[in-house]
Design goal:
Distance between the termini: 83 Å
Strand content: under 5%
Structural class: mainly alpha
Order of helices and strands: HHHHHHHHHHHHHHHHHH
Radius of gyration: 25 Å
Shape: globular
Number of strands: 0
Number of helices: 18
Largest sheet: none
Length: 404
Amino acid sequence: MSPLTSAGLAFGIALIPTFGWLYFLFSDSQKRKSLIALIFIGGIATVIPLLVIQKIFATFPDLNVIQIIPGKIPNVAIAQLIVIIFLGMLEEIFKQTFLRVVDNKWLLIETVNDSIKLAMIAALGFSFAENIYPYFFTLLQYGSYKELMGAYFVRSLFTSAMHMSVAGIFGYYYGISKFAIDFREQSRWSGEKMYLTRWISWIFGTPQSESFREQKILRGLFIAMGIHGAFNFLVQFQLVMPALLLVIGSFGYLMFLINRKAGSLIMINSDIYSHESVIPKKDEDVITELVGMWIKEKKYQDVINICERLLERDPDNNVIKLFKVQAVDLLEGNDPYQKTLSTLLEKKPIIEDQSQITKWIELQKKQGNAIPTNFQESAAYKKFLEEENKKKEAAPTFQLDLNK
């Protein structure tokens, strides 16, 4: 079989499971198909730096770490483990770098789940390219059709799931880092000490929100590299069942993260937009501390009730939104509180809270309008705020007396 025929056939058979994964995971996605295609193609492109590195290693053997490490370490298993971890680290670094560059340029991520799913799409693109070459192409060239059937099943299903799992887990932590100020505040009011964040802030002299951001990004990267390295090591030593269990466990954990309501919550990026609360800062701090205390005491229904009332007054408060969705997540599956919830509320709470800024941005996107950098000073946005305020005035309000 000619190389061109092998390449075309490898491309075709690799495309089938890729479309299957895209349909399974993103058929109900609200993201534009063109955006999904862009991220997918970018994921394919992340293979290029690895091919360049391989070419450099072949041209300059003295720089070939893959060969140098086994020569320096007598224990074969340990040497192979280090090489595998090194290769896995390179793959994850390139994939996460691409996600960060694209997001920084086009501000694609509005929710944590956006970050997870975009990272998974990029990983699927990488896996697609890797399946074509060297795996399927090489087996077709040598006529190893029996081996191709086994490799096709394993790589299309489990290896692709592994790539998406580790990328998605990184995407989760990157998504949290996007809204670092709000997640850090929510964690602080929940009573978390965040010793590592404070230590990093003290060592490098950076704001705690920035330290929290980098801590989350590094945690996601290290977890992704660790799972990837462990998977490659298990496969290298033909420990099939542990490798499968690792993939299933990682993918299950990723699905759990995607299904958390906090992941679907549309938030303002506090680094770009800011808002002034209509509640005095002192009163807001007292209420937020109370909400954090109730979360620890498992008074989830009380948290939901007070958060809903606060969001009527301050719909742009991301911290209160986070507390609300956290309470709803914790409440579900807890029978006594679930019964209370169904009794007190007309319907099961769903997270539809959106800030005024986010509502306006989405409206402009639907109408096909460009969003200027200083849109908050525009006449169109001010008119929109006036209309929203009229709606609030017509709706029932509440009075919060902190002295009671």
